[in-house]
Amino acid sequence: MTSRESLDRLFEYLRFPSISTQPEHSADVRACAAWLSDFLNGIGLAAGVHESGGHPIVLARNSHRADRRTVLLYGHYDVQPVDPMELWTSAPFDPVIRDGLIAARGATDNKGQTFAHLCGIASALEDGGELPVNLVVLIEGEEEIGSPSLPAFLESNREQLACDVVVISDTGMLGPGVPTLTYGLRGIAALEIEVRGPAIDLHSGIFGGAIANPITALARMLATLHDDHGAILVPGFCDAVRPIQAWEREAWAGLGHDAELLRVSGAPALAGETGFTPTERIWARPTIEINGIGGGYQGEGTKTVLPACAFAKLTCRLVPDQNPDTALDLLEAHLRRVSPEGVTITLTRGHSGAAYLADPHSGFGPAAQRALQRTFGGTVALIREGGSIPIVQSFLEILGVPTLLLGLALPDCNAHSPNETFPVENFGAGQRLNRVLLGEIANA
Ligand SMILES: [Zn+2]
To answer: What spacing in Å lies between the alpha carbon of 135 and ligand 1's midpoint?
Structure first.
């Protein structure tokens, strides 16, 4: 496949508005899966579309031999919604190349990154007719909505999906051209708090002073989550946190990542828990984040009410070895303990998943580092990420295998935002990386 052909096919792939969260796009999601399956059959793999209960899963494989390692390549063909539309320079599902960047929804997350691997596989099959490994390709359509069907699919197809290692390119590179191996991810646990006071919004003159205000109660509760220095105050919450290792502290200090965080965030200054660098706070410390808060009158002008209720949405980012259920138990117990008199609180748990950590110096880590080094040159950055990819934990728990996270996304790629981009250069590098990586894994 020439580079022109691979770009053309990527553009076809990017034209599907495969937005998994919007029911009006479910036919587009299915059409995208069918296209992908056709593409995979076309390059010489045996591919098919599989029902999962939700959006379908595309599976493909070469013919397997008992004397070879088996690699499972995972990706997702679904994308995030595109609004606000008016902020896009070009239409999200009409891909274009601007200044060496492919601009489209899904360009980086995750169609472009996965498709680079698929084109690498296509060219290897064209050149030699055979890959150095047994390959399983699994591309799902529900990653952006939390992969609800994938764990059950892995359970019921364990044998078909048996492998030695999972490869995913859905994480970031530290910077342009910097080979990056992500060996840790944070977990997540979500909780919603509802605080109820009076039966209805009351007149704040007739009742104010004698009836507890749910918004004040909620604000007081939320203010007990952290101390003045950014440390989490929920008793026991941080007990299971694994300390950062000395080699990690040293490796991360040399990456220049703190300055980059400030630049990309647009915030006036960095902040957070004393005793840790900003990078350490994101990669290896837990958080309890307030994602949303509401209640009372939100319209224009003044309305003198004493509101009936208030709510807040929280998500915790978790690190090894925190257990998501235990973390939520501790958080709930704390919130109940600090809830003031005169209100009732309801706590509702959302999704959760454990953190992931693999030693980059053992298993297939060195093979991955060699492949990155051969593809990009320079020193491989060993990083953790603050985000969560719960399926990585599912691969470990259900298939019993580790995952290599070889990200090709740049920090300013606008994933999930308007004007998402993926460098043409990274698309090419991803194809080369795939070929080198499969060879290194075969010989590891
Ligand atoms: Zn995403």
So the answer is: 24
* pLDDT tens digits, one per residue of 368-411: 999 999 999 999 999 999 988 889 999 999 999 999 999 999 98
Instruction: Tell me the pLDDT band of 190, cut-offs 50, 70 and 90.
Output: very high
Q: Which pLDDT does position 265 carry in this prediction?
A: 84
Contact status, residue 13 vs residue 40, Cβ threshold 8 Å? no
Per-residue pLDDT, averaged over 40-44, amounts to 97
Query: In this structure, which topology does domain 189-251+269-352 adopt according to CATH?
Result: Alpha-Beta Plaits (3.30.70)
Looking at 3.10.100.10, 2.60.40.420, 3.40.630.10, 3.40.50.2300, the CATH number of the domain 3-185+355-443 comes to 3.40.630.10
CA distance 112 to 296: 44
List the shell of residues around ion ligand 1, using CB closer than 5 Å. 109
Task: Tell me the CA–centroid distance for residue 109 and ligand 1, in Å.
Answer: 5
pLDDT attached to residue 19: 98
Whether residue 99 lies in the annotated active site:
no
| Enclosing H/E stretch for 248 | helix 246-253
- Dihedral pair phi/psi, residue 10, rounded to 5°: -60, -40
Helix extents (H) in 318-416: 324-338, 365-376, 390-394
Please give the Cα distance from 24 to 29 (Å, whole number).
Answer: 10
Of the pLDDT bands very low, low, confident and very high (cuts 50, 70, 90), residue 147 is: very high
Residue 139 has what DSSP assignment? E
